[in-house]
């Protein structure tokens, strides 16, 4: 009997519990494949040298701005892949709770089937609310208590470093912003200049931060002041922009609003951490009742 037939046969009684858990694990494995696809797609994009540097005149004859201009926008596929990665992990979480509901209730579908999902709360009072418990009535008290243990309101130092909270938040962003959660970010900036050209401010002062690139318009980097009468080429001649900027792929809200230790990780490292957490801290322990 193939897997699909085994599942259908299983659900006619209480369900093939091992098959259901294995599907959740397979979703996490697939998420890791998608993460690798994202990395490969980004690397291919960078080989096309998608950005260039330029200087544009400011409001006066002596003011200039050094900008990064996008020649080749980030592939739309990257956003679609990131959405798929979120879907697989979120579906794995929902799937393990559905498995618990079937197992605990002895029914498939379980009672109040449409209300069964993996809960993510930052407020313990909302988790403990009788309405929420009613929606999850198929779960035993033990399973409901186990789910409570991994809630973001238990995270230290706060939910800003909690994997479950971020998966929920990023999935919301992905659904409601047409998938544009990923963006290229300026990682390092190194620009030299020679007198009489003078820097007079700009985001170069924030070089320690990741700076998102708006690919629809040139991104201003450094404001400059030149002698009167200079043309753009003279300004360029007084700048050293060899390997001036390196960029990396990230999710602006994630890197900006997460807290330690998550904040210090690069995107791929955060994604790996999410996969490991979902599998090793949630799915496997819930499947065995040892969380």
Could you outline the blueprint of secondary structure elements for this entry?
Layout: H1 3-11, H2 17-47, E1 51-57, E2 63-70, H3 76-105, H4 124-128, H5 130-135, H6 141-149, H7 163-176, E3 182-189, E4 192-193, E5 198-199, E6 211-212, E7 219-225, H8 232-237, E8 239-240, E9 245-251, H9 252-257, H10 267-288
Antiparallel strand pairs: 1-2, 2-7, 3-6, 3-9, 4-8, 5-7
Low-confidence stretches: 1-14
SSE sequence, one letter per element:
HHEEHHHHHEEEEEHEEHH
What share of the residues lie within helices? 40-55%
Order of strands side by side in the largest beta sheet?
1-2-7-5
Number of strands: 9
Question: Can you give a write-up of this model?
Answer:
The protein has a four-stranded antiparallel beta sheet. The chain starts with a helix and ends with a helix. By secondary structure, the protein is α+β, with helices and mostly antiparallel strands. The chain is 47% helix and 15% strand. It has helices at 3-11, 17-47, 76-105, 124-128, 130-135, 141-149, 163-176, 232-237, 252-257, 267-288; strands spanning 51-57, 63-70, 182-189, 192-193, 198-199, 211-212, 219-225, 239-240, 245-251. The chain is elongated, with a radius of gyration of 25 Å. It contains ten helices and nine strands. Residues 1-14 have low confidence and may be disordered. The protein has one domain.
């Amino acid at each position: 009997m193939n897997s699909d037939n085994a599942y259908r046969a299983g659900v006619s009684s209480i369900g093939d519990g091992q098959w259901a858990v294995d599907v959740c694990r397979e979703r996490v494995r697939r998420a890791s494949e998608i993460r690798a696809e994202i990395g490969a797609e980004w690397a291919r994009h960078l080989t096309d040298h998608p950005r260039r540097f330029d200087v544009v005149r400011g409001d006066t004859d002596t003011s200039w701005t050094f900008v990064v201009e996008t020649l080749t926008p980030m592939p739309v596929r990257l956003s679609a892949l990131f959405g798929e990665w979120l879907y697989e992990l979120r579906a794995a979480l929902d799937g393990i709770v559905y498995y618990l509901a079937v197992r605990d209730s002895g029914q498939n579908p379980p009672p109040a089937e449409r209300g069964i999902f993996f809960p993510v709360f930052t407020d313990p009072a909302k988790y403990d609310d009788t309405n929420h418990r009613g929606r999850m009535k198929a779960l035993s008290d033990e399973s409901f208590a186990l789910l409570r243990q991994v809630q973001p309101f238990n995270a230290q130092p706060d939910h800003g470093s909690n994997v479950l909270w971020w998966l929920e938040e990023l999935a919301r962003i992905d659904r409601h912003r047409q998938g544009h959660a990923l963006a290229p970010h300026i990682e390092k900036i190194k620009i030299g200049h020679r007198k009489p050209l003078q820097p007079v401010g700009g985001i170069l002062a924030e070089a320690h931060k990741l700076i998102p690139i708006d690919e629809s318009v040139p991104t201003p980097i450094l404001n400059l002041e030149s002698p009167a009468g200079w043309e753009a080429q003279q300004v360029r001649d007084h700048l050293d922009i060899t390997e001036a900027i390196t960029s990396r792929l990230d999710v602006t809200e994630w890197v900006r609003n997460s807290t330690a230790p998550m904040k210090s990780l690069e995107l791929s490292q955060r994604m790996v951490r999410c996969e490991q957490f979902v599998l090793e801290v949630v799915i496997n322990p819930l499947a065995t009742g040892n969380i």
